[in-house]
Amino acid sequence: MNGTVLYERPSASASWRVALPHTAAAVPVARALVRAALTELKHGADCDTAELLTAELVANAVEHTRGDAPIELVVALLPTGCQVEVHDADPAPPGHLTRPAGEEPDPWQEHGRGLLLIRALSSSCGHRATASGKAVWFRLPVVPPPRRPV
Fold first, then answer.
1. CA 16 to chain centre
2. Which one, of 143, 13, 116, lies nearest residue 74 by Cα?
3. Using one digit for the tens of pLDDT, what is the confidence trace for 37-63?
4. With 50 as the cut, is the pLDDT of residue 122 above it?
5. In what side-by-side order are the strands of the sheet with 14-20?
6. Cα separation values, 105 from 2, 68, 101, 109, Å
7. Which backbone phi and psi does 26 adopt, to 5 degrees?
8. How far apart are alpha carbons 71 and 141 in whole angstroms?
9. What is the number of other CB atoms lying within 10 angstroms of the CB of residue 49?
10. Which of 74, 84, 118, 127 could pair with 136 in a Cys bridge, judged by C-beta atoms 3.0 to 4.6 Å apart?
11. For the chain, what percentages of helix, strand and coil (3-state, to nearest 5) are there?
């Protein structure tokens, strides 16, 4: 390629699949795993946003699914960005993930903003049925590094 390269996307894809306990302790573990996955390969997706959205997905899976079946975290690094999925045993789709609920969350409440954050900060998000329940996912694009003066 001739000229200056502004940024390079990762040339290889990689993915991780990890079972997590169905407890609140899974949230910080999932955050750390996502950060490690993105920084180990020097991936260009925003680590802070990926951690935040992963924490929301895992917390929702722990809070809104019954039983003690493990939650599965899947992180896929692609040349165009990353996709994070959280699998749980409940087949019911998450409420208001891909469209707003119609009313804004109460700013004085602790709960109710997770799906709003996922919709607002990801490039896309959704859910799909799996053989054992569902997978809820989001995608983040590769972010080019800041340009430096020549």
1. 13
2. 13
3. 888 767 678 899 999 999 999 999 999
4. yes
5. 14-20, 71-78, 81-88, 133-141, 124-130
6. 50, 29, 9, 8
7. -70, -25
8. 25
9. 15
10. 127
11. 25, 25, 45
